[in-house]
């Protein structure tokens, strides 16, 4: 029997029940993976800025980063000099402590990618996020520390190798000790656990797989070695997108009815030597040798 909502639209009870069950299950998985507190701590509108660092982040306006809160979020205690060792340490800790997830697009919620909203969600409320949230946060943290960083866009070609793909991914270019590295803490289960040296033809072995960056026309293509051979993940150039380009990509990926994140429940996180991933009702545990549970 159908009912009606307050706008006199027809309501199918079965559809409503399915929606509620999906929402409840999503929240249960979200709590299981990220251990979110039942009630988020309110964010002060005017925090003590003595512990905050104003930063001008490339094409973005001035960003205020709460570095102590971020360091506490990822469990880091130590110096904050912009060195390669620090970059690698923060990269590994970020992936281990902040889950990759697309719960908001899946539940039909807006995804804000301004710095304040991302800090509130991923740091203060201890949530996770997807590439535009994860890599924006990491970009701003590195810039606040003093690293030379540039936000870049990428074409995701994982499982569909074609440069005709739209530029919907986000990553970060870092220059440190005279060399350029790519940092990507937002590519889900395939995220490199360490920054990758921007050099062609160099196999880079990490704790969770071997990667390389190969030229493809004017693009740099990030590849992951699998038992079947090298598999392309995404391709990028060094052209710097405008802030509006990221906004458009984020809006498309979080709202289009056929995108991966709108159609699927996705959560992934590094847990010690394992990559734990959830795709809808399928839970996968992958080990460094490629074996699966």
What would you note in describing this structure?
- This protein has 293 residues and is of the alpha+beta class.
- The chain has one domain (48-261): 2-Layer Sandwich (Arylamine N-acetyltransferase fold).
- It has helices at 13-34, 67-74, 84-97, 103-106, 115-124, 131-145, 243-255, 260-263, and strands at 3-4, 10-11, 53-56, 62-65, 100-101, 148-156, 167-176, 179-183, 196-197, 204-206, 209-216, 219-226, 229-236, 266-271, 274-279, 282-286.
- A hairpin with a 2-residue loop joins strand 11 (209-216) and strand 12 (219-226).
- The longest helix has 22 residues, at 13-34.
- The radius of gyration is 20 Å and the shape is globular.
- The termini are far apart.
Structural class: alpha+beta
Rg from C-alpha positions?
A: 20 Å
Give the second-level CATH assignment, the architecture.
Answer: 2-Layer Sandwich
Helix content: 25-40%
Broad shape: globular
Q: Count the E strands.
A: 16
How can the largest sheet be summarized? Answer: 8 strands, antiparallel
Helix run count: 8
Quick structural gist:
31% of the residues lie in helices and 29% in strands. The chain is of the alpha+beta class and 293 residues long.
Label this structure with key terms:
single chain, 293 residues, alpha+beta, Arylamine N-acetyltransferase fold, eight-stranded antiparallel beta sheet, 8 helices, 29% strand, disordered N terminus
Outline the secondary-structure elements:
Elements: E1 3-4, E2 10-11, H1 13-34, E3 53-56, E4 62-65, H2 67-74, H3 84-97, E5 100-101, H4 103-106, H5 115-124, H6 131-145, E6 148-156, E7 167-176, E8 179-183, E9 196-197, E10 204-206, E11 209-216, E12 219-226, E13 229-236, H7 243-255, H8 260-263, E14 266-271, E15 274-279, E16 282-286
Helix pairs in contact: 5-6
């Amino acid at each position: 029997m159908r009912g009606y909502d307050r706008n006199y639209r027809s309501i199918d009870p079965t559809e409503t029940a399915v929606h509620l069950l999906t929402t409840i299950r999503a929240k249960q998985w979200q709590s299981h993976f990220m251990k979110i507190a039942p009630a988020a701590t309110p964010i002060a509108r005017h925090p003590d800025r003595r512990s905050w660092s104003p930063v001008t982040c490339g094409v973005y306006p001035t960003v205020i980063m709460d570095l102590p809160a971020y360091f506490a979020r990822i469990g880091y205690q130590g110096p904050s000099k912009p060195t390669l060792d620090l970059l690698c340490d923060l990269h590994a800790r970020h992936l281990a402590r902040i889950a990759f997830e697309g719960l908001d697009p899946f539940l039909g919620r807006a995804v804000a990618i301004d710095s304040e909203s991302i800090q509130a969600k991923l740091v203060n409320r201890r949530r996770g996020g997807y590439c535009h949230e994860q890599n924006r946060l990491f970009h701003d943290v590195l810039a606040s520390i003093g690293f030379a960083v540039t936000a870049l866009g990428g074409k995701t070609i994982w499982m569909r190798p074609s440069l005709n793909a739209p530029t919907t991914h986000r990553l970060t270019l870092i220059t440190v000790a005279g060399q350029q590295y790519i940092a990507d803490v937002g590519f889900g289960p395939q995220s490199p656990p360490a920054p990758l040296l921007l050099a062609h033809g160099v196999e880079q072995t990490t704790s969770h797989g071997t990667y390389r960056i190969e030229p493809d026309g004017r693009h740099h293509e990030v590849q992951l070695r699998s038992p079947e051979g090298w598999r392309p993940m995404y391709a990028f150039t060094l052209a710097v997108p405008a802030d509006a380009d990221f906004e458009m990509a984020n809006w498309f990926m979080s709202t289009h009815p056929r995108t991966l994140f709108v159609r699927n429940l996705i959560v992934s996180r590094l847990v010690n030597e394992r990559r734990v991933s959830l795709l809808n009702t399928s839970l996968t545990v992958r080990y460094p040798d490629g074996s699966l549970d």
